[in-house]
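Hey L., structure's done. Input below.
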Amino acid sequence: MLDQAHRCGLAAAARGDEMLGTAFPADRILLVEQPGGWGLAGLAGSRFGSQVAQRLISTFGRQGVRVLAIRHPGRHPAADRHPDHSWGFADCRPGRQGIVWGTYRAAEELLELDPAELADRAGQAGTGEPVYAVCTHGTRDMCCAIEGRPVATALARECPGRVWECSHVGGDRFAANVLVLPTGQLYGRVTDPVALVAASEVGQVLPDQLRGQIGLPPAAQAAVVHAQRELELATVGAVRVLHVQGAPPDVQLVRLAVPGGSCTVAVRRVVGAPATLTCRDAKAKVPLSYRPLWLRAD
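Output:
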């Protein structure tokens, strides 16, 4: 058992690590149900099969799609009890958000899926009720299991059938990490699942717990959340990115569309002191964060 003092989540909270701008860059996701345990490599380290998983990840990755292993919350039997497993495709791009589902028996069946076709189908399907994916990838980082599993269980009580445990989404030190699909908000340090559901089910966000919107550049993620906080705009989609000017290490200017007009947020990338950022890290790494400096109406 990992010593509590060396858990990355506790250390990051003590340091005050900022979450803004840390959501992953992919804006479309393929969810592949794989019951039982996952190895370090997630789907590629599971009973799904390494070779097929690598081909699937490569094929979808070339189209900018992230592949996540998923399973139902709770106990994970070593052997599959049912021949059919679910897959889902979520498109989280603004204006195209939607999610579609299907089933498979043999892993090779998923190699026949076409990312572009799935994106079209997802857009036509629309958002529907939110789906919640909670990172519980304990073989990758113990904090994800310790913090994520209770949150997944609590969410499942609130939204039966719409909650999945998922493999690595990054930012282990911010566990519990929860991804809301298909709108694409990635939350960190979730401690109140009921409040998260209450907001998400009516198309609202909780800005103080947001890491960012997946698919956006880090500075844009930070700018959107800052505008949501400062202008009290909690509705999903109320703040849209129009343009990002500049690049790190310079201050970036992010122009946003907001109700009634537009605004600009200045964001600086901050390089933190070296630290062990995950429970598995043997060496210190440099954390990056994105700090909003000011918001100005255009």
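The chain has a mean pLDDT of 94. Residues 142-158 form the longest helix (17 residues).

-- N.
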